[in-house]
Each structure stands twice: as C-alpha cells, then as structure tokens.
Amino acid sequence: MALLLPLLLQGCRQAPPDNTPPDVVRQIVMKKWAIVPNRIEVPQGDEVELVVTSTDVEHGIAVPRLGIREPVQPGTPTIVKFRARSAGVYPMHCSVLCGRGHDQMTGVIVVTPPAPPAAH
Ligand SMILES: [Cu+2]
C-alpha cells in the first residue's frame, strides 16, 4: 500500500551524483513479439541500468516518459541508464516496426517510492 502514497516529498529529496555505478541492473529480452519481463520494478531515485537484448531481429526500447528510445540489435546488448525521480508506472514499448505482432511488445517500468515512507 505504501506504493500508492502520493509523492509529496519533493522538498526533502536528496540529490545524488550522476556519475556513480548503477544501483540496480535489470535484464530485458525483446523478441517477436514480447518484452520479457513485461514488468520491471525499480526504486525511485536509484541509478538504473537496463541491459536490453534481442533474440531475433532489430527491436527498439522506448520509455517515452523517461526520455528513453534506443535501438536494440540482435547480438549486441543495448545499455540504457536512467534515474526516475518520481514514483509511478512508466509504459515501455518496442519502437521499431518488427512485424505483425509489434503492437503486442509493451510493458511497464514501475518506479517504487522509498519504503517505509520517509518522515517529513
Ligand atoms: Cu517492434
């Protein structure tokens, strides 16, 4: 239930440096026609590294609300780094038209707020 708390903690948020190693690493596999897993949870404020691979043809990883849009070539992992400053659900999809099931290539990145809720 803590995940549903409104985010009213902007004023006491820390500002961590941006050149640190990732706090969390998540693997994503793109293939005809799915993003696996199609739901990824990461903590708010952490430096996240996504390692995105394709097992067949060229796909693309796009998470518009996080400003992410990168091609994913088979055989070469695409590394995407981001830090989500707000908790919430961020839709992701394939950004390369890869066949008739392309529209099914969707998922979400769920950014969870720190738990337990910080005392303000
Ligand atoms: Cu596609």
Briefly summarize what is shown.
It is built from no helices and nine strands.
Describe, in plain words, how this protein is organized in 3D.
A hairpin with a 4-residue loop joins strand 5 and strand 6 (68-72). Helices cover 0% and strands 45% of the residues. It has a single domain, classed as Immunoglobulin-like. The protein is elongated and about 50 Å long. The relative contact order is 0.27. It has a 5-stranded mixed beta sheet, with no helix packed on it. Strands 2-1-4-7 form a 4-stranded mixed beta sheet, with no helix packed on it. With 120 residues, the protein is mainly β. The two termini are 18 Å apart. The protein is built from no helices and 9 strands. The chain has strands at residues 24-31, 34-36, 39-43, 47-54, 59-63, 68-72, 78-83, 88-94, 106-112. Bound molecules: copper (II) ion. Copper (II) ion binds at residues 59, 94, 96-98, 102, 105.
